[in-house]
């Protein structure tokens, strides 16, 4: 099974993939960006892609919604990881020696309060991903340079941890989703869906959709609006919903199609707050 991730081995995306598929032999397809993850899946170089979609500190990773939508993928799984951030550097360094700190932009955002304690001359530099920045320090023997990443990264590359659990809020979680090329799998055991819809510019149009969901006991757990490219001041809504009756949900979707201008199901899957291993092992890869 080939899985594309943003980052390299020992990154948080790798941890998410390993937690989802603990009993499967995984071949990672490391990517420098979320865009590359989507391309690798689209071009059949990976069976699945793992994407971070939201964090309890940094919020939603908005570009990934557009990636899923424009690439015509489907979300087939989710998993949540507790995220603890660590400062790491070469064994010879102390926290007082650090003049540069590198990490992924979202990781830096999660540690913003901590980073403000460093003197003004200390540079905070955005990098490709947490693990890659740590590996670069080790491979190039970079003195005075630190990375922010997970504890597993320090262990992987033999770096010294200078400070621990530095994120703004100790209870820090990231939700990851699994995407694949869109096929009809016939899965009906889902209880969660991610939808995209566009409304007509009429008073009460959003309220009507939300009332429809409420009437049929469909629980709205998240709503996010994004600008529609090429259509100034028009927005698409991305929502996550929970339902207990798949047949009823399918009927509500038919009613929603009549109430909105555009509607697209981005994925139907099982809610996974407990971060259990994936059920996807029984779904044939590449739709075969």
- CATH domain class name of the domain at 191-276: Alpha Beta
CATH topology of the domain at 191-276: Alpha-Beta Plaits
**What's the shape?**
elongated
Count of extended strands: 15
Largest sheet: 6 strands, mixed
The helix-and-strand class reads alpha/beta
What string gives the helices and strands in order? EHEHEEHEEEHHEHEHEEEHEEHE
Beta-strand residue percentage: 25-35%
CATH architecture call of the domain at 191-276: 2-Layer Sandwich
Rg over alpha carbons: 21 Å
Poorly predicted ranges: 284-288
The chain-level mean pLDDT equals: 93
Topology readout:
Blueprint: E1 2-6, H1 12-20, E2 27-31, H2 34-42, E3 48-55, E4 59-60, H3 62-70, E5 73-82, E6 86-89, E7 100-103, H4 105-110, H5 112-115, E8 123-126, H6 130-139, E9 145-149, H7 151-157, E10 160-163, E11 173-181, E12 192-198, H8 205-215, E13 219-227, E14 235-242, H9 246-259, E15 262-269
Parallel strand pairs: 1-2, 1-3, 7-8, 7-9
Antiparallel strand pairs: 3-4, 3-11, 5-11, 6-9, 6-10, 12-14, 12-15, 13-14
Give a quick set of tags describing it.
elongated, five-stranded mixed β-sheet, Alpha-Beta Plaits, 288 residues, D-Maltodextrin-Binding Protein, domain 2, 27% helix, six-stranded mixed β-sheet, alpha/beta, 9 helices, single chain
